[in-house]
Write a structure and sequence with these properties.
The complex is a heterotrimer of chains A (about 260), B (about 200) and C (about 280).
Chain A (H helix, E strand, L loop, with lengths): L14 H4 L2 H17 L3 H17 L3 H25 L6 E5 L2 E4 H27 L2 H10 L4 H30 L8 H31 L19 H23 L3
Helix pairs in contact in A: 2-5, 2-9, 3-5, 4-5, 6-7, 7-8
Chain B lengths: L14 H23 L9 H29 L8 H15 L7 H27 L6 H12 L4 H29 L3 H8 L4 E3 L1
Chain C lengths: L3 E9 L8 E8 L4 E5 L6 H9 L1 H4 L3 E9 L2 E2 L5 H4 L3 E4 L3 H4 L7 H11 L4 H14 L15 H13 L5 E5 L7 H16 L3 E5 L3 H7 L2 E6 L2 E6 L1 H5 L13 H9 L12 H14 L3
Parallel strand pairs in C: 3-8, 3-9, 6-7, 7-8
Antiparallel strand pairs in C: 1-2, 1-4, 4-5, 9-10
Helix pairs in contact in C: 5-6, 5-7, 6-7, 7-8
The chains are: A mainly alpha (about 260), B mainly alpha (about 200), C alpha/beta (about 280).
Chain lengths: ~260, ~200, ~280
């Protein structure tokens, strides 16, 4: 079943999983905001520790590693380029032949890397530990238009379907002798016959899907009801309070000049 | 297109255009997939956003762009959240210009491609500066950025050029490919998307 | 009291000069099974869509005449209201899935949620239609993981959950294999036996001939025949107009095997009876 979903969501039954989606949304948004509010290495490291702790509690720490590794390349680019060319560079730290890395730039690169990992860790709490469909349904309960909710959820299902169709087309065109390797021009020319049929057929199919939704009462203005009931565990309120307090303190801190 | 009577900014939120949005996001995804399978030096990951703007106007184009980045932010690549505004801007610009005659011929579509590239660059540069001191994470663009900053260029200018060299070929190709696919669609369907027809009695 | 009354219905799509429907009138009694046949582009789909209000509300265009289904004037009410009285099932099982639900059970709930049906009532209705269409065992599967026949039955179930009095089906088996086709026909015939009014546009005329109470023949947007299958399929003018008739009827016509009322058989059973009698009368 999960094969047909576009989602990194890892189902489970830890206390993080049992939290309602809105609480996890608050956790992610607050953590990302704090990344930009709190200055200094110490705060960034502490924040990262908290997010990683939540990921560990949800049992997805290992699943997060590839995601972090994936952006490590970008992170390395930051460190290298800033180490070389940051305008504030003064103190040489490392010399490799004709190239000199400077301390200020390397530190800035490191700070950017930490920021990147912090943003990732905070959003991964939402991504790996919250079912996207549940998240959307929670938002619709709180006043997001059900039509917009439909759009968000149907993307999750349409993408795997279209990706599967893309694979089929790729195989079919290859077996008909289309060249998908070779010079840049050859590969560029292969793009249109691959893309064209899929785009045209999926756009034409929108008509019948729209008709089918219409006859199921999609465009009425009734207040929607929900098949699944929402459960908010009592400890979710404690967590919400903690995160929001941290946010208020950080904003106050910046405002009053404590930080 | 004689029957495009409505203002470009008319809200075209029918069930049909709502269904178009997920399809647009799917097309974005498949474009990216094919581009990487063919090892093209382009992303081609906004064909759906551009097509939805061409078919259903600026608002639907903008929402397709927004949903695209929200969904990929939530499921695959959290960083794409930050470029939400770039996608929205592209959808708006394509939608508005498409409904004011800028996809009536191939030549005009090419101009549209350059405009879209410029808009994407202008909007992305501040985001790059805020997030990564002006870099894009693209190896070639960042090499240029490094060289320029090394010569004493201001960060925002280096960052702008970094983004521009990456965006011009990509967005130009995206708009031209989208234009060709738009032209291949049945006219009846195009009319259905753009709306403006009324129920009359006879 | 007729459950469907169509009176001089005329319709033209936007940007078109020729009408798609041209002065159609007919009535359907509760519990009847009506088959709509005709060559391609005769207006079958347009007529089906006119019965639920997609024509004209979805497509716009020019409309004339009157369509009243289950007491509701279709031209004066939005599709979201009409769909509580009359359901429509389309050709492609795939595009009829909402695309926003991940199990069969939830898929049926989609329309009910949008109609604001209370949760207890929703569960009662979903359980009922899933049993009715033989989908209870697959209720936790992903809709897109079903076979074509199952998916099409799910489309029927999703529409029936809104408790319409009339079920309209627009070539529901054209994209199914023979097994899937039989599944759908059996399901629809069962529904009809339980009192549902059914209108079905279909190319497979021999299947309609077996089950329908009346056949409506469309040709270039006009209704050229409306009556019991034997009467309609015995008309001499249909093949010349490109309207398909059941192979059995065609064969009997060649053989001159007529029923006592002068019509030709439309099912194999009828033909066998006549054929047996014909042979018995002329031994050797």
């Amino acid at each position: 079943m999960n094969r047909l979903r576009l989602s990194l969501y890892v189902p489970g039954n830890t206390w993080v999983h049992r939290l309602d989606p809105v609480t996890k949304l608050i956790m992610a948004v607050v953590a990302v905001t704090l990344v930009f509010l709190l200055p200094g290495f110490g705060a960034a490291v502490a924040l990262l520790a908290v997010s990683l702790g939540v990921l560990a509690a949800g049992g997805v720490l290992r699943r997060s590693v590839p995601v972090f590794a994936g952006v490590l390349v970008i992170a390395l680019t930051f460190v290298v380029v800033q180490g070389l060319v940051y305008p504030g560079n003064q103190h040489p730290a490392l010399t490799l032949g004709p190239i000199t890395f400077y301390r200020e730039g390397l530190l800035l690169g490191l700070r950017l890397t930490l920021r990147l990992f912090n943003i990732l860790a905070a959003t991964l709490v939402l991504i790996l530990l919250t079912s996207p469909a549940d998240l959307v349904e929670s938002l619709v309960r709180r006043g997001v238009s059900p039509r917009f909710g439909y759009v968000l959820v149907s993307v999750l299902q349409i993408i795997p379907n279209m990706a599967a169709a893309a694979g089929t087309i790729m195989d079919a065109q290859r077996s008909r002798g289309m060249e998908t390797e070779g010079s840049l021009w050859t590969r560029l020319r292969a793009f249109i016959p691959l893309m064209g049929p899929l785009v045209t057929s999926s756009l034409i199919a929108t008509e019948e899907r729209a008709l089918a939704l219409e006859v199921r009462g999609f465009s009425g203005n009734r207040k929607p009801t929900f098949l699944h009931e929402e459960v908010i565990p009592p400890y979710a309120w404690v967590i919400r309070a903690l995160y929001l307090t941290a946010l208020i303190l950080a904003i106050a801190g910046r405002w009053m000049g404590w930080l | 297109m004689a029957y495009r009577r409505q203002s470009p900014w008319a809200f075209r939120f029918t069930t049909l255009t709502l269904v178009l949005i997920p399809v647009a996001v799917g097309i974005n995804y498949v474009g990216k997939l094919f581009a990487s399978t063919l090892k093209l030096p382009l992303w081609l990951d906004s064909i759906g956003t551009v097509l939805s703007g061409m078919l259903a106007g600026p608002w639907v184009g903008a929402i397709s762009g927004a949903v695209n980045n929200i969904i990929f932010g939530l499921t695959a690549d959290p960083i794409s959240f930050w470029y939400l505004i770039t996608s929205i801007a592209m959808g708006l610009v394509v939608g508005y210009l498409a409904f004011t005659g800028w996809i009536n011929s191939f030549g005009r579509a090419v101009v549209l491609g350059f405009i879209v590239a410029l808009v994407a660059t202008v909007v992305s540069t501040p985001i790059n500066v805020i997030l990564w001191e002006g870099m894009t994470g693209n190896v070639w663009g960042d090499a240029l950025y490094g060289a320029l900053v090394d010569r004493g260029w201001p960060i925002w200018a280096a960052s702008f050029l970094d983004e521009l060299v990456v965006d011009v070929p990509d967005k130009l190709a995206t708009v031209i490919i989208s234009f060709l696919m738009y032209r291949a669609l049945p006219r009846r369907l195009v009319g259905l998307f753009s709306g403006g027809d009324r129920v009359e009695s006879f | 009291m007729a459950v469907i009354e169509v009176e001089n219905l005329r319709y033209r799509y936007p940007q078109q000069t020729e009408p798609a429907l041209d002065g159609i009138s007919f009535t359907v009694e509760p519990g009847e099974f009506i088959g709509i046949i005709g060559p391609n582009r005769a207006g079958k789909s347009t007529l089906c869509q006119a019965l639920v209000g997609l024509v004209p509300h979805f497509y716009q265009g020019s409309i004339g005449g009157r369509v009243v289904v289950a007491g509701l004037d279709v031209h004066r009410h939005p599709v979201s209201e009409v769909c509580r009285r009359v359901g429509l099932v389309f050709q492609s099982p795939f595009t009829q899935m909402s695309g926003a639900k991940f199990t069969v059970y939830d898929e049926v709930a989609f329309g009910l949620e949008h109609q604001g049906v209370p949760r207890d009532e929703m569960i009662r209705r979903i359980d009922h239609v899933l049993h009715l269409l033989g989908l209870w065992e697959v209720r936790d599967r992903n809709p897109f993981a079903l076979s074509g026949g199952q998916m099409q039955r799910l489309a029927v179930a999703s529409v029936l959950a809104l408790q319409p009095q009339v079920l309209v089906l627009d070539e529901p088996t054209s994209q199914l294999d023979p097994a899937g086709t039989s599944e759908v026909f059996t399901a629809v015939t069962d529904l009809c036996r339980q009192g549902m009014t059914v209108v079905m546009a279909e190319h497979k005329v021999e299947r309609l001939a077996e089950r329908a109470d009346r056949i409506l023949v469309l040709h270039r947007g006009k209704c050229i025949a409306y009556g019991p299958p034997r009467e309609v399929f015995s008309r001499e003018d249909l093949p010349g107009l490109g309207v398909a008739i059941p192979p059995v009827t065609e064969a009997c016509r060649r053989l001159g095997w007529r029923l006592p009322d002068g019509t030709y058989p439309v099912t194999v059973e009828e033909a066998v009876k006549i054929g047996g009698a014909a042979r018995g009368g002329n031994p050797g």
